[in-house]
């Protein structure tokens, strides 16, 4: 049953009515400096401290199996979720997950209702305390609530499956490379539900931050020759809602187009 927090808020505030389906840009690239974010070097050092304190990274989980080529830790957790969802690997798949693709296409979801399960995106809006301690500066430099966010290690030979992520008025995703090699690439190819289309093959560089229309199919992979893991922050932020005690309400950006929130830099308080 679709009773996750975003679905509830979307209905209650008719959020979709404010969303402009046609995008004039589907891919954005900035230097970290332009957005007022910490340097990649600072972020990398903080990342290593987090890994040390949480006891290491873990593979992406599904069907009680763990990936050996795609690992990491979770920035966010759900204090009202099960044991996995309360831990430092909460948003890297789930042992009971039985489906690689979106919840909406899953013919046999492992959970009867979505609220506070792995499928509840806004359930992931609490930052893990160890992450908060070291990523404070990064999190303060975006004026939005993070959710379902992680730091991912892709190993040589990794090939992510083609996929799409949340609708943009539910979550906007930032991709921040910390360590990479030229053989690791991002591929985007196709159209979203509203006919916005993009075809792109690109190596993502350290020192930059990227955002794209993640409703268009995309994947990352090693084209061959990778010698060390690629480490990227993959952080999602909630564009239009914020917490209000135990409930939620529209935030001050409600109705501003998610791509415009980024392009104008209005959500980056330290942007020069
Ligand atoms: O860079 C990664 O590891 C994940 C890329 C991706 O699928 C995303 O940012 O949505
Ligand atoms: Fe993605």
Mean pLDDT across all residues, rounded? 96
Q: In the CATH classification, which architecture applies?
A: Sandwich
> Order of strands across the biggest sheet?
2-3-6-12-7
Strand content: 25-35%
Ends: how far apart? 45 Å
- Main beta-sheet annotation: 5 strands, antiparallel
3D shape: globular
Structural class: alpha+beta
Name of the CATH homologous superfamily: B-lactam Antibiotic, Isopenicillin N Synthase, Chain
**Number of DSSP strand runs:** 14
Q: Give me the strand/helix succession.
A: HHEHEEEEHEEEEEEEEEH
Helix content percent band? 10-25%
Examine the coordinates and then state which fold CATH places here, giving the name of the CATH topology. Answer: Jelly Rolls
What hetero molecules are bound to the protein chains? 2-oxoglutaric acid, fe (ii) ion
Secondary structure layout plus pairing:
Elements: H1 5-12, H2 15-18, E1 27-31, H3 40-54, E2 58-62, E3 65-74, E4 76-77, E5 126-127, H4 129-140, E6 145-154, E7 172-179, E8 184-191, E9 197-202, E10 208-212, E11 218-222, E12 230-238, E13 241-244, E14 247-250, H5 258-263
Antiparallel strand pairs: 1-10, 2-3, 3-6, 4-5, 6-12, 7-12, 8-9, 8-11, 13-14
Bound molecules: 2-oxoglutaric acid (AKG) and fe (ii) ion (FE2).
2-oxoglutaric acid (AKG) is lined by residues 152, 154, 165, 173, 175, 214, 218, 220, 232, 234.
Describe this structure in words.
This protein has 5 helices and 14 strands. The chain has one domain (5-263): B-lactam Antibiotic, Isopenicillin N Synthase, Chain (Jelly Rolls), CATH 2.60.120. It has 272 residues and is of the alpha+beta class. A hairpin with a 5-residue loop joins β8 and β9. The N and C termini lie far apart (45 Å). The model has no long low-confidence stretch (mean pLDDT 96). Bound molecules: 2-oxoglutaric acid and fe (ii) ion.
């Amino acid at each position: 049953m679709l009773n996750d927090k975003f679905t509830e808020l979307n209905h209650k505030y008719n959020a979709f009515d404010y969303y402009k389906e046609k995008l004039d840009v589907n891919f954005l690239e900035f230097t970290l400096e332009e957005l007022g974010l910490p340097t990649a070097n600072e972020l990398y050092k903080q990342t290593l401290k987090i890994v040390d304190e949480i006891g290491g990274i873990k593979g992406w989980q599904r069907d009680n199996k763990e990936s050996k080529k795609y690992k990491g830790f979770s920035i966010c957790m759900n204090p009202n979720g099960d044991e996995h969802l309360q831990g430092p690997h909460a948003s890297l798949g789930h042992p009971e997950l039985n489906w690689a693709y979106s919840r909406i296409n899953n013919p046999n979801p492992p959970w009867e209702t979505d609220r506070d399960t792995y499928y509840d995106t806004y359930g992931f809006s609490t930052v893990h305390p160890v992450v908060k301690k070291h990523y404070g500066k990064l999190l303060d430099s975006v004026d939005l609530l993070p959710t379902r966010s992680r730091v991912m290690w892709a190993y040589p030979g990794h090939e992510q499956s083609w996929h799409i992520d949340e609708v943009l008025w539910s979550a906007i995703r930032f991709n921040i490379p910390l360590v990479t090699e030229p053989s690791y690439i991002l591929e985007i190819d196709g159209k979203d539900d509203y006919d916005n289309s993009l075809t792109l093959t690109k190596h993502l560089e350290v020192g930059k931050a990227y955002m794209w229309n993640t409703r268009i199919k995309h994947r990352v992979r090693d084209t061959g020759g990778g010698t060390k893991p690629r480490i990227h922050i993959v952080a999602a932020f909630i564009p239009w809602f914020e917490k209000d005690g135990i409930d939620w309400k529209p935030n001050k950006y409600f109705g501003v187009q998610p791509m415009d929130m980024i392009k104008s830099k209005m959500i980056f308080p330290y942007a020069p």
